[in-house]
Write a structure and sequence with these properties.
Layout lengths: L4 E6 L6 E3 L6 E3 L2 H6 L10 E6 L11 H14 L5 E5 L5 H11 E2 L5 E4 L12 H12 L2 E2 L2 E2 L4 E5 L2 E4 L4 E2 L8 E2 L7 E3 L3 E3 L13 E2 L7 E5 L6 H8 L6 E6 L9 H12 L3 E6 L12 H9 L2 E2 L5 H14 L2 H8 L13
Parallel strand pairs: 1-4, 1-5, 5-7, 7-10, 17-18, 18-19, 19-20
Antiparallel strand pairs: 2-3, 6-16, 8-9, 10-11, 11-14, 12-13, 14-15
Helix pairs in contact: 2-3, 3-8, 5-6, 8-9
Length: about 350
Amino acid sequence: MSKSRALIIYTGGTIGMVKDAASGALMPVNIELLLQHIPELNRIDAELCIEAFETTIDSSDITPAHWIRLVEIIEQNYDAFDGFVILHGSDTMAYTASALSFMLENLGKPVILTGAQLPIGVLRSDAKENFITALELALLKENGWSKINEVCIYFEYHLLRGNRTTKYSASNFNAFISPNYPALAEAGVNIQIHTNLLLPITKATPAFHKKLDENIAVLRLFPGITPQHVKAICGIPNLKALIIETYGSGNAPTASWFVEYLRQTIAGGALVVNVSQCLNGAVEQGKYKTSQQLLAIGVIGAGDMTLETTLCKLMFLLAHASMEDVSLLLAADISGERSHSEN
């Protein structure tokens, strides 16, 4: 039997930094030098290939154009590899994982993003464990089929569904949580896969989508928010969707000016989507009086989707569907991203 093959896609990020001997400062390195710091990779019984971005980037500089580039790389190499590991900065990893979960349709192989909180060149770095285990997970098979066939994030002993994650810590090795969906796997002495939580195996032909619509804005509510603030964001030219980050289960101010600005935005043809500022739980419009007016004017509830997923799902849907269909699909679970179909 031929060896399994994994493609490592290197975008940049903290994982790929070492300390400069002269200055002591951390600096990015090329992928070949990074791999020299992980000799354990030679013990993985698989063929490992590498593709790096032409210019590696800090994840704070990630854009939808980079997501499209990742889809292109995976499409070009899809048939030749059993799994894909993307090395990525942690700050925007949840956004990238969410976007890819929609752009890679009918995925039959694992795409696992990982990175590190400390650079590979630092003594106590978490990079080795994250990288090695992500590769092992990407190569797992059962009866000739990949055991995992979705976009995931692996960090600090946990495999999480990509479009369920959010980065919650800048200082802990356990940087990511999946607040509304359990971990897909835990890595200890053994790797325990929760097969019942994985997306079902598909034999459908994969589709690689490369269009996104960026005409979206985010409005985070806070006590004391002014009409000028809300008006400015609602008045952004060519706006197709506005995400409002509300309180609790989807609650917002009942001030007439606030509701009117949202009503005008919807009347102008844009969608308004309600996401909770709370990490855990779901938007339930109408549960309290402070969200009934949102339901009445046509604001769409995001259920238990994260902000990252709601944003990326909108970018994807707006580029591929009519506004009417976008409204319907936002309330549906199309890639394991939400648990509820609520208001």
